[in-house]
Design a protein that fits this description.
By secondary structure, the protein is of the alpha+beta class. It has 4 helices and 8 strands; from the N terminus they run αββββββββααα. It has helices at residues 7-19, 120-126, 128-131, 136-152; strands at 25-28, 43-47, 58-62, 68-76, 82-85, 93-95, 101-110, 113-115. Strands 1, 2, 3, 4, 5, 6, 7 and 8 form an 8-stranded antiparallel β-sheet that branches.
């Protein structure tokens, strides 16, 4: 019988690999908080940050309860904390300090296509999509209706 690895155990191992100097560690996307940029089944590649984190960066962090979350930085605050938000989310989260940031996404595989921070898709979700935060619920609802309508015409 195959053994199933739970997400926390897997991500604990990923963070350990990063702390030991590994780079470009692959992590499959399982949740929906980064949809539409990163739907479940896509792959992200994590490194330790080599530059100061800034708005638009996607980071893996831990919540106070120990759960791992992948969200985008919306703002770096003057007190050293970060405001984070998933691309499919409307509720911002504050992460106090750098200690809960476990890694930064340096590239991603979306439907088999490799993306980097210089990719047009990445830039769109890092900037215009972030600025459209108040409109996200309507835009995501419209996207879902269009997907359903497209499925009916096939």
């Amino acid at each position: 019988m195959p053994r199933t690895l739970d997400t926390k155990e897997y991500l604990d191992t990923v963070c350990d690999l990063l702390a030991r100097g590994s780079t470009c560690v692959p992590v499959p996307v399982a949740g929906t908080s980064m949809v539409p940029f990163l739907p479940p089944g896509d792959m992200v590649y994590l490194d330790l940050p080599e530059h100061p984190l800034r708005a638009g960066d996607i980071v893996l962090f831990t919540r106070p309860d120990g759960r791992y979350v992948l969200h985008r930085i919306v703002k770096r605050c003057s007190d050293g904390s970060f405001i984070l938000l998933g691309d499919a989310q409307t509720l911002r989260e504050r992460v106090e300090g750098f200690s809960r940031i476990r890694g930064i996404v340096t590239r991603a595989s979306h439907r088999g296509k490799m993306l980097t921070p210089a990719s047009l898709r990445w830039i769109f979700y890092a900037f215009p999509w972030r600025w459209a935060e108040p409109l996200r619920p309507r835009l995501l609802g419209l996207r879902e209706r269009l997907r359903k309508a497209k499925g009916k015409t096939r």
